[in-house]
Amino acid sequence: MEKPVVLYVEDDETLRFITSENLEREGLSVMTAGDGLEAWRLFLADKPDICVLDVNLPKLDGFSLARRIRESDLNTPILFVTAKSLREDKLEGLLLGGDDYLIKPFSIDELVLKIRIFLRRSGVPIPSPVLEPIRLGNFELDKSNLILRYGTEEILLTFKESELLEFFIRHKGKLLTREQILETLWGGNDYFAGRSLDVYISKLRKYLSRDPAVKIENRHGIGFIFKA
Question: Which of 1, 39, 44, 210 has its CA 20 to 30 A from that of 221?
Answer without folding.
Answer: 210
